[in-house]
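User: Once you have settled down, look closely at the record that follows, taking as long as you need, and be ready to discuss the fold:
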Amino acid sequence: VKMVRGVEKLTLFYSRVGIAVHKKHPLFFKKNVTLADFKDSSFLRYLPMELKPEDDYLIKVCGVFGFYPRITAQIEDFDELLYLLEMGEGVALVFEEAEVISNMNLRFIPIEEDVPQKYLPMQLTRKEKNRTPILNELFSYAQKYSNLHDKKDIRTAPEAFVKMMYFNRKKGLLVVSIYEKPSLLPGKIVGKV
């Protein structure tokens, strides 16, 4: 894995960060849990790119809570991280993600304490040299609507916003759902990348 360079980023909003815990974990049902309660747990580290330890989010946040995480696995693919969480292989710091929140086997415990790393930026990215018309249009649209709401709370977003974007690596498709009103239009394939 190499450090990503030459990438343009557009922050759309910030998502809350929390601990994803499997239902077999002893702290799954405990109320008033903080990250410090997980100091002896096995951590799954989501690491899609190479980072210096001083830039590593997991290490920084755990440091605020007074411990260094016992990292048992480093995962580059978020779907693989979700799979390992569902198997009860450890706990992980993740952003507030529908796949975690709606999973009956997992509990998302948001970090409630006032720490600088309470939110993660949700970003639209592309290679700086990639100026294809469809990506230019997507970035323009995202820029317009990401500036219209409080980036720390997506619930204040305007009626028209980018609801979901993902790149399907296997099929080489950029899939975007652009909603005029939430939940009215399904996702549409907008172009090959």
